[in-house]
Amino acid sequence: MDRCLFDFALRMGDTTLILSQRLSAWCGHGPILEEDLALTNTALDLLGQARLWLTLAGEAEGAGRDEDQLAYLRDAHDFRNALLVERPNGDYADTMARQFFFDAWHYFLLERLVKSSEPRVAAIAEKSVKEAAYHARRSADIVVRLGDGTDESHERMQAAVDRVWPYTGELFVDDDVDAEAARRGIACTLAELRAPWLAQVQAVLEEATLTVPREDLAGHPAYRGGRQGRHSEALGPLLAEMQFLQRAYPGATW
């Protein structure tokens, strides 16, 4: 078993899987048809990426578990997603603030993973980075449109940014898994993503006439632990819905 590669791939797969599940809940409920379709497509892109990462995790584990078993047959404490992505959707401003912060981080990470020493990681990153670039452009555009829109949309977008901001710090805190992955050249450290991420976030929020929260989360995030299996109460209901069919009818096939 390649423990480091397994843990890294599992974190990537779980984070994209859980965010995909969150976004899929907007299908049929988007504020306008264009946004309904756009969010659904983003959810599908992330689901496709999750499948690749979880397949790699299963290969690295060497215990015979495939992507479906990893997705549907683990409990909440076994998931390794960042806390940011399990946050409830809230209103559309909450969803887009979460998406914008995630997309900027995701793009900068994948951009570096393309150069990974592990060929399978590099291949997944190369396939995913183009999707991530589009996601980042789109979510930034929506944040600008809402922030620099009406008085109400500006107020709602600012409130959403303030609510979601404390969950972003975890994205840049390295632990032993991250340090080992960086040492082997599998991935970069998360800390080095913070400067480009913050520059991008500040530029977009300024264009959106929004204020960047003052709280400095570098090294001291308000919320952390999801990547080590410590989750909020929001994850349980999400998994109950996502895993219901497989749990109710084990091994069912179409």
Task: Please provide a brief summary of the model.
This is Phenylacetate-CoA oxygenase subunit PaaI. It holds the Pfam family PaaA_PaaC. The chain is mostly helical.
Describe the structure.
The protein has ten helices and no strands. The protein is mainly alpha-helical and 254 residues long. Helix 2 runs antiparallel to helix 6 and helix 5 packs antiparallel against helix 6. The two termini are 32 Å apart. It holds the Pfam family PaaA_PaaC. It comes from Bordetella genomosp. 8. This is Phenylacetate-CoA oxygenase subunit PaaI.
CATH architecture title: Up-down Bundle
* Share in helix: 55-70%
Which blocks of ≥5 consecutive residues have pLDDT under 50?
A: none
Query: Would you identify the CATH H-level superfamily?
Result: Ferritin, core subunit, four-helix bundle
Protein structure class: mainly alpha
Mean pLDDT: 94
Strand content: under 5%
User: For the CA atoms, what is the radius of gyration?
Assistant: 18 Å
What does the main sheet amount to? Answer: none
- Oligomeric category: single chain
> Can you write the helix and strand succession as a string?
HHHHHHHHHH
Shape: globular
Measure the end-to-end span. Answer: 32 Å
For this structure, the CATH topology is: Ferritin
The tally of domains stands at 1
Report the top-level CATH class: Mainly Alpha
**Total helical segments:** 10
E-strand count: 0
Organism: Bordetella genomosp. 8
Protein name: Phenylacetate-CoA oxygenase subunit PaaI
GO biological process, one term: phenylacetate catabolic process
